[in-house]
Amino acid sequence: MPGVSSFRSKLVRAALGALAGLLAGFTALAVAELVAGLVRPAAGPVTVVGGAVIDRTPAAVKDFAIRTFGENDKVVLQLGILAVLALIAIALGILALSHRRAGAAGVLLFGLVGATAALSRPDSTGIGDVLPSIAGALVGAFALYILVFRAVSAPDPADGVRVDGAGGWSRRGFLTAAGVTAVAATSAGALGRFFTGRQGQGAVASRESLVLPKPASPAPAVPAGVQLKVPGITVFTTPNRDFYRVDTALTVPRVDAGTWQLRIHGKGVTRPRTYTFDQLLTRPLIERDITLTCVSNEVGGPYVGNARWLGVPLADLLREAGVRTPSQGGTADQLVARSVDGMTLGSPVEDVMDGRDAMLAVGMSGEPLPFDHGFPVRMLVPGLYGYVSACKWITDIELTTFDAYDPYWVKRGWARRAPIKTQCRIDTPKPFARPAAGTVTVAGVAWAQRRGITRVQIRVDDGPWQDADLAAQAGTDTWRQWSYRWDATPGGHTLTVRATDGTGRIQTEQRTRTIPDGASGWHGVFVTVT
Ligand SMILES: Nc1nc2c(c(=O)[nH]1)N[C@H]1C(S)=C(S)[C@@H](COP(=O)(O)O)O[C@H]1N2
Ligand SMILES: [Mo]
């Protein structure tokens, strides 16, 4: 049956092309990884293309990704990019069987995409950033050319294995070339990883050798009763390793504190200055318990955490630079913080200098900032969502106006100004829990940074609002725990909770989305009492 056998041989041929394409793509990425490891890890093609995708993703899609994949959103994105690249590599490999040059040119084209993305990144350090993509593409294209040549070349008389009568290919020759390519590429990739790891070693060493100074102004003693002894309730001070992480960084910046600098400049700055890390540390430090909240936190969501921060009061630095608030006749109303990875966040100058504990933090709950949370220095402004205040890996502060400049998230549809909304969360019982009838302790946390929490109320189904017991309040900038002893009766029940802030205002019932300035509405959980 010639039809069947020629179909089979076509299939085998296509499979070989696909394999050649995949191997060439893998080689391209591995070589790029090696060069990135030598030049600059953040300039690797997957990182720069991923970064470009993140920056161009519509806010709603990004919100969906954060909601669906949580803190794994970046892993999902990178796997997605690799899957797309694999499909393209397979297509190019099959194309190359008949049009070898075109296939190789296709690989080069992807190198150009990577190189363009690298140059367009806000943290690009120049033309050298194209090297990983270009080198990877050149070697990948060459690999494809050779592999396909092996796959379709005339049979090697020495091995004599022929499947396809027309044109033919040498199975052994191809498999040898494929094997050599796979081994070489894997080694290149591994070596790249090794160099990447080594590049961060200066930063790691600078963090490990850092001894944090004692604060000139220690945190006020936390009252004994801030932590309720209720199983399942959020802990008052979030351990650093459990602290939520939200950022756009595909590779966490590893900044060496020894070479780090912070520049303060811009509108109304009469004495621009640049600080080194050591200069910051010699200043009087403050230590404060502050609850940080992400604007992407859904009602009842996890993107909120409380830590004991150690840092330099930011208002002092600004005053020394000559900055005045708008209410004192200053010309700048927006402070734009910029990170080493090119992120920009804008805070109202008025808020930063109104006496609240806005700071450049260097310590987080007793240790230097973890790399994930902004080592060596990050900004914090109590009462403002993270995206308008909490710049990690900060390196530049520019005084400007809200009219003149929109930072990263504002360009993408989020509000210019975003004070944290009063929120309350039920930690226990969990949604759809099945507690036994009798006394059930309902408990959780409430927060309204700057205003504090003065009351939390619980409603069972459509019943009356009942006051919950409040834990001690550490300060107005931290969350506050609460609990309520509920006499639970069998059946399905909805528990709803709402908080009142220090101004006497009850948290609004009106549900809004997280975009543009944070979710509002009451948190409720449904449980079935057995
Ligand atoms: N450089 C940089 N800083 C950043 C961000 C970022 O993407 N890049 N994200 C901000 C947002 S949206 C929040 S909510 C906080 C989160 O800080 P955390 O990851 O330490 O919890 O960091 C802020 N600072
Ligand atoms: Mo955020």
Task: Describe what you observe in this structure.
- The protein has helices at 2-38, 45-56, 59-69, 73-98, 100-120, 131-152, 171-199, 201-208, 277-281, 314-320, 349-352, 408-411; strands spanning 261-266, 273-276, 286-293, 304-313, 334-339, 344-348, 359-364, 367-368, 378-380, 394-400, 423-428, 438-447, 453-460, 466-467, 469-470, 480-488, 491-501, 523-529.
- The chain has 530 residues and is α+β, with helices and mostly antiparallel strands.
- It folds into 2 domains: 2-199, no CATH class; 240-412, Alpha-Beta Complex (Sulfite Oxidase, Chain A, domain 2).
- The strands form 4 sheets. It has a 5-stranded mixed beta sheet with strand order 2-1-10-5-6.
- A hairpin with a 5-residue loop joins strand 13 (453-460) and strand 14 (466-467).
- The longest helix is centred in the first third of the chain and has 37 residues, at 2-38.
- The protein is globular.
- The termini are far apart.
- The relative contact order is 0.10.
- It binds ligand MTE and molybdenum atom.
- Molybdenum atom binds at residues 246, 294-296, 385-387.
Q: For the CA atoms, what is the radius of gyration?
A: 29 Å
Count helical runs. Answer: 12
**Total discrete domains:** 2
Distance between the termini: 69 Å
Hey, roughly how much beta strand do the residues contain? 15-25%
